[in-house]
Amino acid sequence: MITPRQLTDIARLAETRGVDYAVLTHLRQVYPGLYFTQCMDDDINNIEPVLRGAGINLYLVSGRQHCLNLTLDLHAARGVVLAIAEEETVDS
User: Which of 40, 57, 56 is nearest to 48 (CA)?
Assistant: First the structure.
């Protein structure tokens, strides 16, 4: 299970320090037993993030049915995907 407070703390860290190997390693140390990975936000389809941040969106990973999949269920979550969101540009 992941709490809303943990999600907020994870997003804040990612927004401040960015998302790289060192940040993922730090998160794994702070939250032992949780799975952390990163990707680009446009790599994820068909599900909304559980938390939108400044340049980063968080998605939850469930391990139910012996297969990793994305979920919106905080109680089923066993990990977090930190998805880097590219800022949209508007043509003038």
Answer: 57
Question: What per-residue string of b and e applies to 76-91 under the rule 16 or more CB within 10 Å gives b?
Answer: ebbbbbbbbeeeeeee
Give pLDDT tens digits for 44-84: 998 999 999 889 999 999 987 778 899 999 999 999 999 99
Overall number of domains in the chain:
1
**What are the tens digits of pLDDT across the range 10-44?**
999 999 999 999 999 999 999 999 999 999 999 99
* pTM over 0.90, yes/no: no
Instruction: Print the domain residue range for 65.
Output: 4-84
Q: Determine the Cα–Cα distance for residues 84 and 76; give it in Å rounded to an integer.
A: 23
Within-domain flag for 89 = no
Report if residue 91 sits inside a domain: no
